Amino acid sequence: CKRCQRRSGALWSANAIVDADGFKIVRGEEAVRVWSPEGEGLPKAFCADCGGHLYSDGDSFMVVRLGAIDGDPEIEPSWRQWLESAPAWAPIPDDGIRRFQQRRET
């Protein structure tokens, strides 16, 4: 969405949604800092050393930035959302993955 584009400085990001019970930081926890946006949006965790966005905390689930994971996460995309926010000069590929103009329907 536009809000996320402005907060991240990127057109899109690859994320994985996992149960909070299955989420664990394996190293560098002392460098994690959390920012909670005013109004809408989940608290976001960043690395204090490099500034990278690591995950967002949804209480019962975590939204993990796949770029923060070392190695292959061994998952494939299941859907693309917020297509209405994609700029015309960077079209989203029509690759058969479910597509949503706004937030994914649950």
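(the above was protein one; protein two follows)
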Amino acid sequence: VLTIILDKLPEEISNTVSLAYSVRSAFVHGSNVSKDNQEKWDKEYEKPQDILELALDYLRISIITNIVIDLNKEEFLKLINSALVSRKKHKELFILLKPVKKILQHI
């Protein structure tokens, strides 16, 4: 869904969320950030807060999406899954997300 709203590659969003979650988990569980994750963080982001701001933006967009669309969780997930294999459902999802994109243009 974020890929449609933000016009970004799924890998970019997935990598950001995965890295942010790994860093978060390390802190929450009292561990240090792994060397691999620290290297990814240093390589891909100028400042530590960059990934955090990006992850928060994704979260805000997800919340706005769930407020704006007129589907319950099960219906929305079913549409997302169907959109992966059906052009008709993909178009339906794209149309459903247009108001979200419009709102985000003004933020």
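Reviewer note on protein two: The chain has a mean pLDDT of 90.
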